[in-house]
Automatic annotation (TrEMBL), chain A:
Catalytic activity, reaction form: a di-trans,poly-cis-dolichyl beta-D-mannosyl phosphate + L-threonyl-[protein] = 3-O-(alpha-D-mannosyl)-L-threonyl-[protein] + a di-trans,poly-cis-dolichyl phosphate + H(+); a di-trans,poly-cis-dolichyl beta-D-mannosyl phosphate + L-seryl-[protein] = 3-O-(alpha-D-mannosyl)-L-seryl-[protein] + a di-trans,poly-cis-dolichyl phosphate + H(+)
Organism: Daphnia pulex
Full protein name: Protein O-mannosyl-transferase 2
Entry membrane topology: Multi-pass membrane protein
Family indicated by similarity: Belongs to the glycosyltransferase 39 family.
MIR domain span: 270-326, 339-395, 400-456
Enzyme nomenclature, EC number: 2.4.1.109
């Protein structure tokens, strides 16, 4: 354990500049310390912890974390690094204890601990300000509490039983709250719980109610408590971040109202929308922009001649639209006629307030998305033709429902073409000032076809403060999740970008640069451990099949063999499942993937290797004569240890920063075992 | 394993009251006594009789009958088979209990065949009705019809699906006299007389019709009664989606036909394995026949569409499971015998499929020998092996690249394009304010062009004409590349590339007198020199050009240049040398003959080849290249298609697909399932799963609610149908493709079978719970009502399946039962 601390903290202050994703997570820590709102695709707990570490250390959030390679200079960054390193260091004792609880074999646990300890990938990943140290910590803690709890099964409903059970719940919700990858460990624990309950159910000597009792206890501790805790974490997140910041635009107008300093925070508008009002329409999707037009025409070659309609992310008077009935002019603002509200299903025209052109669509191909229709500004001072008529359809609206600012999301359906006003989110070329394309989409169910009203200027109606639209916690909680999940799946690799593929990970094909410059840090696993893990995984399958076959064929085995086999197989079966659960789902993911996504799976496979290595050491000598027993055992063990330590020594410069040598005959050159390693 | 206990089990239907519970306990006892080896000898149990395996009469029906006689009600309910006799009178004597017995009499065969024959007849009628209408391209006929045409012309094409289905279509077209002259341009254009529409559409129509007797036999094989089997056929028959899909030149009916035949054969094989004297059947002709035909059919399914692999896996899982349980667990077999069985299965399920698969591709590649529209998806060597096209250009061109070679350099992997330059410089400033070298642009251009020609020279020589002895270029040597038309050298320097600022710019060197020296020497690295050798060969050598001064590699970045670069692809110098985008190969090649630049430019237009041997590519090389391109190169995705749907939506039939719309009226073809069938199948799936969980939990508590035979039948159903469903459905949640409703059809097939199976199981449960005959009649009445409902819905949506017209807008809107169904209304 001392070794852990030593390896983790050695030269922790080097490199003294921002490495790789520290640029992100350091920045997020700033946001927490400065309490400004931001958007990230991961849940908040990990970043909150980093922020907390920084805060405890006296870091004031003043460093900008602009890009990798920036020097920290005199900012207090060590607190955050130490915090992460501590969480990372705890992985080693945790995996030691996990294997101990699974097998009660000292060599197996020690080996597993060593495999985690001596892996450069784990080491590197756990030394920097990243989300991975807390995530790995919580995942392995979940697994540890799970096996610990399993071993309490003989004294159910005792105090330790309850304690361990509820701590599984806590750890699970923490894992999920750091990164959504934590969901896999939840599934893992779920499988284990089902297996446990199945065991209990099969115990005929006890009544069914006993199983129900067990079930209720688990439901309470593994479903109710984690859910509450998870929501609690989000509550803190949303409560801490109450200042307007760079993340505002990702959320809906109603969400932004709650952020101090946001322009919506103090504004006010009439609640209902009436004919004659001046409106701004916002595309009601993640980071949607305002419907916009300006005094420029579409170029001749793409069906030009009429005025451009775009969406534009900034506030501008060209975003303002005047709403009219399709067949008559609205009364002026100082008339005394009764106010005419806009209702679900109404036919209307939208006149661009500055240029006096009507929002118009016709059977001309849209500039970029050529399967859809072009939308233009047409007419003169609000007089146009029947192609300017739109029908407003409030989402889940009822007949005669009055359209309300902010609250309602609606579609605008073109009366003649039956298509929906849509922002395709594709940038127009220079002639369109690189604003986003707006089209009329025949697919009316496109999620991009939904709009809401943000500004509503109509003096005849009383203004209501925006604050009345403010969402309560649950709505904000749900919206944050929708935005998180959309953001996550939107992280697509850019075309031509070299991305990491899941099949490359277990074979340690390509690492990840953490820091360039003079002191290089390169994230790469210890090849001995990684390739060893693969070998032992295959070994496990062979063992499993051969044991199955022998059982089926009724081969008689000695009790010691059976004991060894059962111990190794049952523990490894679960670990193998854990590995699968943390690895396979990445094959189906379309988002951009990185090498470090493999590390949770690596935890499982390393533990499995430890157990299987122990099994091999115990059972290979069994087949040899008695007198060679001890010597074989010791020689295998010491051989394994020597190889592990030597490989660690060999590659350790990768972790602690190697000085870059330009020429190929540097000291590091002989470490290029694979040509794909780029250090 | 189910040693009955004396615990009293509360029966699951709590509303039954005490009396019913008692009844059940009595039933239990009977069953239990049977478990203790046939104490009730009075009535021989047909299910235990090994002769009766595969009996058309299902066992659970017989059982309650005898129980009733013995224990429960005095007014014993008439058995189901009796009722069947009554209700099935019209179908002749098809109800004889021993439908599928071993007796080889003619009479039995006739009995057995009547019901499926009837179904098959109706299937043929529905599938072939108005088969050549509409006489225009419907949906994906656009592709499959075109491919069938290309087969007639023996022209190579590239498609990401395997060829068997298209080959069958092409064969039908060939027999129908199709010459391949029709141009499949867009959905909706009319066929002319040269296209044998009826013949080509009859392939899916026939396979789609055969599906119905197939599912009938599968249900019999799963030990269900023939009425249940007929019900399954009925569900298949009257599902609009299956009908529509079988009516046009589409792959799914063919796929389903092969998959279901394969499953049936595997089930037959299983029946042999599980029969009382499995030993005797081993390696018999029937044994081999079912095993091999199962494997072959399943492979054929795979060869129609790659999703067929899930059917194959299902077959493999079933055979493997039986091997594990019945062969490995059978201690009376010696090690040698077990090994023999393992080998036989390995041969049938690995070697045979491999042979079939390769065979299908052999036919594919040996038929398609002419160059065609998709050539550029393949490597230069592949193209050169096709008649016409590239081969006519490259045939006879020199093999070895020498000093003075004129070449075009093709980006070897991924999207095809050629290294290109033109007389235009990079803009001084880019849109994002970065500066450039303002030297001549170098791009990757997707079309053949005179500007794609480059001349390869040694840095230290100035002459360019090729003279004997040839100065060959080998791996590791340094060269310069001179652009043929502008005469400038390929150059790179430490300036950020236009579209990828992290990479290095590549240009043709122009001396602007700004102390930016030419860095125009490149080192040749041949990546496949183990096979080709060190000397640079045209077509075959895969070459990387490494910039000598900065050691970056010439690379295709995947980004497009803006308008100033004519939207061509960007070429950069990339530090990441080891990646597929840095690999180029020489495609067209000739030797320079003239020293003078003007003459050289003239020469670029002429073709004067030094004759050498033509390129020959073996089958295996072509096969592997095609495999790699099909499986690993992601093909174009249809983005923003209007009729895409997600797997969750398939369960409740949220969206259909518009296949065709008549230009004259609103008559249209819209792929849409029979909503009644789909919903009940989804419900049935839920009910089956809940029952399964319920039974498992109860058995864990040692409570056996249903008879062992019923349970075995229920379990086998799950093993085959539920697992089959999951295999065909679950993977869609993890794929990145654009998904359409017709992707669901294979899973749907299993779901429909499950639905029919569940109906019989529920009927069995009713009989188990309610002694009164009344409830049985109720049950049958409900099923009949349900079936007539299905018929009505089927009939209602028939116009959309066949595209019958003319229809007006209100008729179409009348069919729009769900808001999300987007029918096309373009006429009043």
């Amino acid at each position: 354990m001392i070794a852990t601390v030593a390896t983790r903290f050695y030269k922790l202050d080097q490199p003294d500049h921002v490495c790789w994703d520290e640029a992100h997570f350091g920045k997020y820590a700033n946001f927490y310390i400065n309490r400004t709102f931001f958007f990230d695709v991961h849940p908040p707990l990990g970043k909150m912890l980093i922020g907390l570490f920084g805060y405890l250390d006296g870091y004031n959030g003043s460093f900008h974390f602009d890009k990798p390679g920036d020097k920290f200079e005199d900012h207090q960054y060590m607190g955050m690094r130490i915090g992460c390193a501590v969480m990372g260091a705890l992985l080693v004792p945790l995996s030691f204890l996990t294997v101990w609880e699974m097998t009660f074999s000292l060599p197996a646990s020690t080996l597993s601990g060593l495999l985690i300890l001596l892996d450069h990938g784990m080491l590197t990943l756990n030394r920097f300000i990243l989300l991975d140290p807390p995530m790995l910590f919580f995942i392995s803690a979940s697994v540890y509490t799970m096996v610990k709890f399993h071993n309490q099964r003989h004294r159910p409903f005792s105090l330790p039983w309850w304690l361990w059970l509820s701590s599984i719940g806590v750890m699970l919700s923490c894992s999920v709250a750091v990164k959504f990858v934590g969901i896999f460990v939840v599934i893992f624990v779920g499988f284990r719980t089902i297996a446990d309950l199945w065991e209990i159910l099969g115990d005929i000597s006890r009544p069914v109610t006993y199983t129900v009792k067990h079930f209720m206890a688990r439901a309470l501790c593994l479903i109710v408590i984690p859910t509450l805790l998870y929501m609690g974490i989000f509550y803190v997140h949303l409560a801490v971040l109450n200042n307007s910041g760079p993340g505002d635009g990702f959320y809906s107008s109603a969400f932004q109202v709650g952020l101090k300093g946001n322009y919506l925070h103090d504004g006010s508008t009439p609640r209902e929308v009436a004919y004659g009002a001046i409106l701004t329409l916002k595309n009601s999707v993640t980071s949607g922009a305002y419907l916009h037009s300006h005094d420029h025409l579409y170029p001749e070659e793409i069906g030009g001649g009429q005025q451009q309609i775009t969406t534009y992310a900034h506030k501008d008077e060209n975003n303002q639209w005047h709403i009219k009935r399709h067949n008559k002019m609205p009364p002026s603002w100082n008339s005394t006629k009764p106010v005419d509200f806009v209702r679900h299903g109404d036919l209307l025209r939208l006149e661009h307030f500055v240029t006096g052109r009507n929002l118009h669509a016709h059977r001309v191909l849209a500039p970029i998305t050529i399967k859809q229709f072009q939308v233009t500004g047409y007419g003169l001072d609000g007089v146009g033709d029947t192609n300017d008529i739109w029908r407003v359809e409030i989402e889940d609206g009822e007949q005669n429902q009055v359209l309300e600012t902010m609250v309602h999301r609606f579609r605008l359906i073109h009366y003649n073409l039956g298509c929906a006003l849509t922002c395709t989110k594709k940038k127009l070329p220079t002639w369109g000032f690189e604003q986003d394309e707006v089209t009329c989409n025949p697919n009316k169910r496109d999620p991009n076809a939904i709009w809401n009203i943000e500004e509503n200027i109509f003096p005849r109606l009383p203004n209501v403060s925006f604050r009345s639209y403010e969402k309560n916690f649950f709505q904000r909680f749900i919206e944050s999740h929708v935005v998180l999940i959309n953001g996550n799946s939107a992280l697509k690799p850019k075309e031509g970008e070299a991305t990491s593929k899941p099949w490359m990970w277990p074979i340690n094909l390509r690492g990840q640069f953490f820091s360039g410059g003079k002191l290089q840090v390169y994230l790469l696993g210890n090849p001995i451990i990684w390739w060893g893990n693969l070998v032992f995984m295959v070994f496990y399958i062979i063992l499993w099949v051969s044991v199955g076959v022998r059982e089926k064929r009724g081969v008689v085995m000695t009790p010691r063999e059976i004991m060894l086999q059962n111990r190794a197989l049952s523990a490894c079966g679960w670990l193998w499942l854990g590995w699968l659960l943390h690895y396979l789902p990445f094959w189906g993911m379309t988002r951009v993937l990185y090498f470090h996504h493999y590390f949770p799976a690596l935890l499982f496979s390393s533990m499995m290797t430890g157990i299987l290595l122990d099994y091999a050491m115990e059972s290979i000598p069994l087949s040899l004569p008695q007198k060679m027993f001890n010597s074989t055992y010791i020689s295998i063990l010491s051989g394994a240890l020597v190889i592990l330590f030597y490989s660690f020594y060999l590659f350790s410069p990768l972790v602690y920063g190697l000085v870059r040598y330009a020429d190929s005959n540097s000291t590091m050159h002989h470490l290029h075992w694979l040509s794909t390693w780029e250090f | 394993m189910k040693e009955p206990t004396h615990r009293r089990c509360v029966f699951f239907n709590s509303s039954l009251g005490e009396k019913m519970v008692d009844t059940e306990v009595k039933n239990r006892k009977v069953n239990r006594s049977k478990g203790k080896n046939e104490k009730n000898k009075e009535i021989p149990n047909p299910a235990v009789d090994p002769r009766d395996e595969g009996d058309g009469e299902s066992t659970p029906e017989a059982l309650p009958e005898e129980l009733a006689e013995e224990t429960v009600a005095k007014k014993a309910s008439p058995s189901k088979s009796e009722k069947k006799k009554r209700s099935g009178g019209k179908a002749g004597a098809a109800t004889a209990g021993t439908a599928l017995s071993d007796l080889p009499t003619l009479a039995v065969t006739c009995h057995f065949n009547l019901l499926p024959m009837l179904l098959f007849g109706v299937a043929l009628a529905t599938r072939f009705y108005a088969l050549d209408q509409p006489n225009s391209i419907v949906f994906d006929e656009l592709h499959y019809g075109r491919y069938a045409g290309l087969y007639q012309k023996q022209t190579f094409f590239f498609d990401s699906h395997p060829p068997l289905g298209k080959q069958l279509l092409a064969l039908a077209g060939y027999l129908g006299g199709f010459q391949g002259d029709f141009k499949f341009d867009k959905i909706g254009s009319s066929y002319n007389a040269s296209v044998p529409v009826f013949a080509m559409r009859s392939v899916p129509a026939l396979t789609g019709s055969l599906l119905i007797p197939l599912v009938y036999m599968i249900m019999l094989q799963l030990n269900y009664s023939q009425w249940t089997a007929a019900l399954a056929g009925f569900l298949f028959l009257f599902d609009n989606a299956l009908l529509t899909q079988s009516h046009y030149m589409l792959m799914e009916p063919i796929l389903l036909f092969f998959a279901m035949s394969g499953v049936l054969c595997v089930l037959k094989f299983r029946a042999l394995e599980r029969s009382g004297n499995a030993q005797a059947h081993s390696y018999s002709l029937r044994w081999w026949g079912w095993l091999l035909s199962g494997a072959i059919f399943l492979t054929c399914a795979l060869c129609v569409k790659y999703v067929g692999v899930y059917s194959y896996l299902l077959g493999l899982a079933l055979v493997g499971h039986d091997f594990w349980e019945k062969v490995l667990g059978n201690l009376s077999l010696s090690k040698k015998q077990v090994f023999g069985h393992a080998c036989a299965r390995f041969f049938a399920f690995f070697m045979v499929p491999l042979m079939v698969y390769v065979g299908v591709f052999y036919i594919h590649l040996s038929t398609l020998v002419n160059a065609g529209p998709h050539d550029s998806a393949m490597s230069s060597a592949f193209q050169a092996s096709l008649e016409g096209g590239l081969s006519s250009i490259v045939r006879g061109q020199p093999l070895e690249v020498v000093h003075g070679s004129q070449v075009t350099l093709r980006h070897a992997h991924g999207s095809p394009c050629w290294l290109h330059s033109h007389a235009a410089n990079y803009p001084v400033k880019y849109a994002d304010k970065r500066g450039s070298s303002h030297q001549q642009q170098v791009t990757c251009y997707v079309a053949k062009d005179i500007n794609n020609w480059w001349i390869i020279k040694r840095p230290n020589r100035t002459d360019l004409a090729v003279a004997a002895p040839l100065d060959r270029i080998s791996h590791g040597e340094e060269v310069q590349l001179v652009h043929g038309i502008t005469g400038r050298n390929l150059n790179s320097h430490n300036v950020a590339a236009p579209a990828s600022p992290t990479k290095q710019e590549v240009s043709c060197y122009v001396d602007h007198n700004v102390s930016m020296p030419a860095q125009d020497v490149w080192r040749v690295e041949i990546t496949n020199r183990e096979e080709i050798g060190d000397v640079w060969h045209a077509l075959e050598s895969m070459v990387r050009l490494i910039h000598v001064n900065t050691s970056v590699a010439l690379a295709f970045s995947g980004r497009l240049l803006p308008e100033w670069g004519h939207n061509q692809h960007e070429i950069v110098g990339d530090v990441m040398v080891n990646q597929p985008n840095t690999i180029f190969n020489v495609e067209e090649h000739r030797y320079t003959r003239n020293e003078d630049e003007k003459d050289r430019q003239l020469e670029l237009m002429t073709t004067d080849f030094i004759p050498l041997e033509p390129v020959v590519m073996g089958f295996w090389e072509k096969f592997f290249e095609l495999q790699i391109r099909m499986l690993f190169i992601s093909n174009e995705n249809v983005q923003n298609h209007m009729y895409t749907s997600s797997p969750w939506e398939w369960l409740v039939l949220t969206r259909g697909i518009a296949y065709w719309v008549s230009p004259e009226s609103n008559a249209q073809i819209h792929l849409l399932g029979n909503i009644f069938v789909w919903y009940s199948a989804t419900v049935a799936l839920g009910v089956y799963c809940s029952l399964l969980i319920f039974y498992l939990l109860r058995q864990r508590r040692q409570c056996y609610d249903i008879h062992e035979e019923a349970w075995n039948q229920f379990r086998t159903t799950g093993e085959v149908l539920l697992v089959g469903y999951v295999f065909h459905f679950l993977p869609y949640f993890f794929v990145d493709h654009t998904l359409f409703l017709h992707h669901y059809l294979p899973a749907l097939a299993f779901k429909l079978l499950l639905n029919a199976a569940l109906v019989e199981h529920l009927y069995y449960l009713t009989r188990l719970v309610f002694a009164k005959q009344f409830f049985n009649w109720m049950c049958i009445l409900i099923v009949l009502t349900w079936m007539s409902g299905i018929l009505m819905v089927f009939n209602k949506f028939l116009p959309l399946s066949y595209g019958l017209g003319p229809m007006n807008a209100s008729q179409i809107l009348d069919l729009k039962l769900r808001e999300t169904w987007d029918f096309i209304v373009h006429k009043p």
